[in-house]
Each structure stands twice: as C-alpha cells, then as structure tokens.
TrEMBL record, chain A:
InterPro entries: FSCA_dom_sf (IPR034904), MIP18-like (IPR002744). Residues 11-94 form the MIP18 family-like domain. Pfam families: FeS_assembly_P (PF01883). Transmembrane segments: none annotated. Residues 184-207 are annotated as: Disordered. This is Metal-sulfur cluster biosynthetic enzyme. It comes from the Bacteria.
UniProtKB/TrEMBL annotation, chain B:
Residues 12-323 form the Amidohydrolase-related domain. This is Amidohydrolase-related domain-containing protein. One of its GO terms (molecular function) is hydrolase activity. Pfam families: Amidohydro_2.
Length: 261, 345
C-alpha cells in the first residue's frame, strides 16, 4: 500500500484486499478465491491521483468454501477486509458482505457496526479473537520455518548447523520475508541476526539436539496448513462450479480471471 | 474381500452412514440448517472422482439397496461400522440415528456393526439411555460430537466430570471404542471443533478405552499427531483423509499419509469411506494401488507395504472391534510396528 498514486482506486482496493489473509490458511483472500465481487463506484474510482477522488463507494462480497465454515474465522476476515479497504485513500463508504453463510447476517451487521466478536455474538462467544489469531500466527511461523530451512539445506548447509544459523544466513526469498513478517507480527525477533530456528511460543532460539524434532513439527505444521488449503480450494470450486474467482477488478465490477487451485 | 495382484485385503469400513436429509424430514423453521448441512456434505463429495458424484436429490436420501450395493457388492467392504449423527434439532426423524442403523443392520446379519452416541449434557437420563441402547443393539463403540450445540451450550469437553461418568459407563459396558469427531467444523462458534487436548486427557485417564480421532483433527493434524504420539490408545480415523484428499489433492494426501505414518505408525490408522459422502469402491481400489511418490519432495516419508495397507484397510479396525478375520490374514503376535516419530526418538 505504498504506491497508491500510481494506480486507480479500484486497483488499490484490490491490493488492499490482497493484504487480508485467511488466518488459518495464511493466504490472501484474493488468492483463495474468497472475493466473489468487488465493485468500486462513484467518487472518482478510476482516477490515478487518489487524493483528488471524492470518496468512492466500495461494495465487496466474500464467500467461503462451506455454509458452516467457522464463524470466528469468517468474522476475522470480514472485519480485516473492512479495515483494509477503509484505509485506502479515496475510498468513502465501504460495505463488506459475507454471503452464503449461516451466520452471515450477524457477522455483516456486527462488522458494519464495529461491534467486535463478543458484541456480535454475545454469550455465544467466549472471548475476542486475538488469541486465535496469535495461535495461527505461531503455526504460520512454524510452517514458514520449514520452507526457509529447506531452502537453506538445498543451498548446501549441513543440517547439524541449522541451530546456529541466523535469519540472515538463509537465502533471500519471498518465503524468508514472509517468515520475517509473521515473526514481527507476533513480536518475535525478526532481524537478520535473530536465530533462524526459534520457538514461536517463547522467541528463544532452538538449538541441538532439539532442532531435529522442532523441524519435524515445522514440516508437519506446513503439511497440515497446505492440505487444509487444498481442501478449502476444492470445496470452494465444488460449491461455485463454473464461477470464476476475480483476478482484477474493473471500474464497477468483475472481470474474469479464473483461478483454479 | 478385495484381491489385487495376488494379495487379499479384508476391508472394514469403519465410518458409514444411512441418512435421510430429504426435505420431508426437515424440521419446520430449521430448513436453512437442514438444507445447509446436506449441501455442505454434498460439496465434500465433489472432492471425489467425477463419475462418483450424485445428484443432490439422490444424495439427500438413498435407498437401502443402493447402500448395500455400493458397500458390499461394488465397494469391496466386508464389514461396515455405522456412526450415528442424530441432528434431531434439524431433521424430524433424525439425520442418521442408532435406531435407523440398527434396523438396517438387523435386516443384513453379519454386515454391520452398530455404534451409538452420548452427550454428557443429558445427565442421568442420558446414561440410562446409553445403557439401554448398548444392551439392545450390542454396541461396542460410540461416536461423539464435542462441538455440538445444545440450548445455550456451544459444546462440551471430554475433560469434564460429566464426561468421565459416561466414559466410566462405557468401560463398564464393554463399549471400548470411542470415536470423536475432531475435524471439519460444523456447529462451532469460537469453540474449537478440532481441539484435541480433551482427547489427550481422556485417553490418559481411560487407558482401557480406544480413542479414534475421526478426520485426524483436520485442519490441525499437527496438534493431533503431536498428542497421539504420547497416547498409546489413540488412533487416527481416516474418513475425509482418503475421500477428500487422495483424488482431489494427491500430493497433499501423500504428505498427510507420510506424516500419520511417521508420527503414529501403521497400526494406528483406521480406514473409513464416510459413505454416502464418498463411495468405498474408488477409495479401496485407489488406496491399494497407491504408493508414496518417488519425488525428492517426499523423501522424508516411507513407502507403504502391502502389510501396512492390509492393516489400515481392515485389520486394525478388526482388532479394535474383535472382528474375526480370515485365518491367513490374522496378525501374528508381536507384529506391531513402532512409528518413527514417537516421542523421544
């Protein structure tokens, strides 16, 4: 979200949606095909100089793989999408609508009224969702550790040395930066001199002989996350056969770009 | 018995259903949930091969003849285990009850094992009902839904004292197999449907019972695997794993199988087709033909032997349920294999 001036409000809105992740799958909603519709109207939605735009109206519809997808995750995604889109310069009114979900009405109204999860579901919700988000961020750190350590080993590192390496020792890559981002979000050490392998619960480096087992858990966590993502993508496709996930938005609506998993 | 390349496979399908989700069975005022539930199941069927997909009308309600053919004539199943799902709040006669299952089992002697269910929130009456059903239907197992809503309650835990009473009753009645749904979410709100820590607790306190975690805690198999390595009486129910991944996501299927074999070992995995979401035929045939890919990406994982497949497809469940298996397949003593990933190794 740093190059807004170079693109239209529509493009900036799409980019903003791309920063919102399914907390469980750790992937952007736009990649997962969860954005069913994104319409930017009024104001000066097509303007490239967003600062002059007079409050474009944004209407987003989100869809999920099943009618019964966990409402806590759904709430997080709708709320995060609302925040991300509202922060785009040139955007006025924002409506984020979850569709085809058993708790859609409650979630949509709760997010629009900024009521929070407990405010929306009252006694049904034991707590706010911060713990849940942190829990899945820790899993994202573990899964990311597997990706980055594999690259380190592929580059010729001796497995026995992993416990002594730093984040900066890993080859520069999108995976490494993603891992760094997730660690930063959790408040864990994330600079180049921080340990490559650390316990996401404590932030302490993991050293031999615990590294091997820790990496086993990291691999398992990644497999779980990616398999889950595979199931969700397959379910979405089965639920919306022939429909297309939109890859880029036009001025007022959808233009197709099919996303098959 | 399924035979392929000269090898015999005695198939126990440990997870099957005979349901009625047709509109005539929907509770007035609850139609959206009854409809949403079965459509959700139907979408899961979409993860199987295209030629096995059913139209929604057939999927809502299928005949006894269809089920018998799909399981025992075409599907290679020798014995199937009914797992009930009552859902009476949405379906007038229930979705798939112990009573319906038992009536069908009675019409086909030797084909089915009937499991029942309990809910600790039903207190003393529930305990009494459990005992009656177990005695009447000869149940050796139960299927539990800890995330099920009931009134103001959004679920329950196997850790609770109320649950302990029911587990004690199971032990007393010889109901030694406790299947717990820990997997794809159905009712939960902020309650974790896949939090397996309560299974850990119960498995430690009730070492004589077997705990089969259905759907292996998906989408959090890491929590499940980590817990299961520490509990000798915890098993992995493969319903959804085979049906949902083997065809639609073969590479992930390979990895999930690799992890389950690594952390739990081949003696702890229990096949279940989860009919009528998926038919057993393509799952049994596909699993027998399946092998861990050779690519380097799968280099951490072991190949699957014929013996392992025989255990997973039927012999493991036969052991838990005291099912007699053909003599040549009967396991020899001390044949159990330790997994690679057990704690401390």
């Amino acid at each position: 979200m740093t190059t807004v001036a170079a693109r239209t409000v529509s493009e900036a809105v799409w980019a903003a949606l791309g920063t919102v992740r399914d907390p469980e799958l750790d992937e952007p909603l736009t990649d997962l095909g969860f954005v069913a519709r994104c319409a930017v109207t009024g104001g000066d939605a097509g303007a490239t100089d967003a600062t002059d735009a007079a409050g474009a109206e944004v209407a987003v519809q989100l869809r999920l793989p099943t009618y019964f997808c966990a409402p806590n995750f759904a709430f997080l995604m709708v709320a995060d999408a609302h925040d991300a889109v509202s922060a785009v310069p040139g955007v006025g009114r924002v409506v984020i609508e979850l569709i085809d979900h058993f708790a859609a009405d409650s979630i949509n109204q709760g997010v629009a009224a900024r009521a929070g999860f407990v405010g929306t579901f009252g006694d049904e919700a034991a707590d706010e969702l911060d713990d849940l988000r942190a829990d899945f961020l820790r899993k994202a750190v573990l899964a990311g550790t597997d990706r980055v350590c594999r690259a380190v080993l592929a580059a010729g590192a001796d497995p026995a040395t992993l416990g002594r390496l730093t984040l900066g020792d890993a080859p520069a890559s999108a995976d490494r930066e993603r891992l760094r981002d997730r660690r930063r979000e959790l408040g864990l050490p994330s600079t180049d001199d921080a340990p490559l392998v650390l316990d996401p619960a404590t932030g302490n480096g993991v050293e031999d002989p615990a590294v091997r087992r820790h990496l086993g858990l990291a691999r398992l966590t990644r497999v779980s996350q990616e398999a889950n993502s595979g199931v969700c993508r397959g379910m979405l496709l089965a639920r919306y056969p022939g429909t297309q996930a939109i890859g880029q938005v036009g001025h007022t609506g959808e233009s197709g770009e099919e996303q098959r998993p | 018995m399924y035979t392929k390349d000269g090898e015999d496979y005695f198939v126990v399908d440990a997870h099957t259903h005979f349901w009625d989700a047709s509109p005539a069975n929907w509770v007035a005022g609850q139609e959206q949930y009854a409809k949403g539930w079965i459509e959700c199941f139907h979408a899961y069927q979409g993860l199987g091969p295209a030629e096995t997909h059913w139209p929604i009308e057939k999927f809502q309600k299928y005949s006894e003849e269809t089920m018998m053919r799909d399981l025992f004539e075409d599907g290679h199943v020798d014995i199937a285990i009914f797992q009930p799902t009552n859902l009476r709040q949405w379906y007038t006669e229930g979705f798939n009850t112990t009573e319906t299952d038992a009536a069908m089992a009675e019409r086909h002697p030797g084909k089915f094992i009937v499991n029942t269910t309990w809910d600790p929130r039903e207190g003393d009456d529930g305990l009494k009902g459990l005992e009656e059903r177990v005695k009447r239907f000869g149940c050796k197992g139960v299927k539990l839904y800890t995330a099920e809503w009931r009134g103001d309650s959004r679920g329950w835990s196997l850790k609770s004292p109320e649950s302990a009473r029911y587990l004690e009753k199971c032990q007393e009645l010889g109901v030694k197999n406790v299947h717990v749904h820990k997997g794809p979410t159905i009712w939960p709100l902020d309650k974790d449907a896949f939090d397996v820590s309560d299974v850990d607790h119960a498995a430690t306190n009730f070492p004589e019972l077997n705990f089969i975690v259905e759907h292996v805690g998906l989408p959090r198999i890491e929590d499940f695997c980590f817990m299961a390595t520490q509990e000798p009486n915890v098993y992995a129910g493969l319903a959804v794993v085979v049906g949902g991944l083997m065809h639609a996501r073969p590479r992930f299927f390979a990895k999930v199988m690799g992890e389950l074999l690594f952390w739990l070992g081949e003696d702890k995995l229990i096949f279940g087709a989860d009919y009528a979401i998926w038919e057993p035929k393509w799952q049994v045939e596909g699993f027998v033909d399946w092998q861990m890919p050779d690519d380097e990406e799968f280099g951490d994982y072991a190949k699957l032997t014929v013996t392992a497949k025989q255990k997973i497809l039927g012999l493991n469940a036969a052991r838990l349920y005291d099912i007699e298996v053909p003599e040549k397949l009967a396991p020899k003593k001390a044949e159990e294999t330790s997994p690679v990933g057990v704690a401390g190794s």
